[in-house]
Predict the 3D structure of the following.
Amino acid sequence: MRREIVFAGFGGQGIILMGVILAQMMEGFPDLQVTQAQSYGPVSRGGACRTDVVISDREIHFPKSARPDLMVFMSEESVKRYLPEGDPERTLVIYDRTLIRSIPAPYRRTFPVPATRFAEEELKNRIVANMFMLGAAIEKVLPGSFSALQQVVRKSVPPKSLDLNMRALEAGYEFARVHGGA
């Protein structure tokens, strides 16, 4: 088993945090190996931002995604820049439909998620849109791992924003559970 995940957006959206949390979560799965690599555009806030997470039951020789199984996008720019790395027939693309109109053909496996809209309207804080996205994606990454993800998020976010982050994570998970995804 090998899963390659790319999270992409712009600096300031918590893209790197999503990858770091996912990689930390894998400590609870000792039979699996994990790598996490990140890159930023020329400007840390507002520039292109990406993190790759590779999960495998074998030794990982290259820490970045070569053929992503799952791509999670939170900006139009990141779609234009990184989507060509995916496989139109195989790669599942989860995207923030608040910030991205659609994923272009020929990509068939897409799942639009209202992360930023939900964070702004329901939680009154757009900064937790990344947690909504992570909650919506987790069952596609590693089925049955949501409780492990919750534990890592509890340890990873500042105490004063813990409740808000947990509500966003749980709402994203519930959204994906109800709406399925591709």
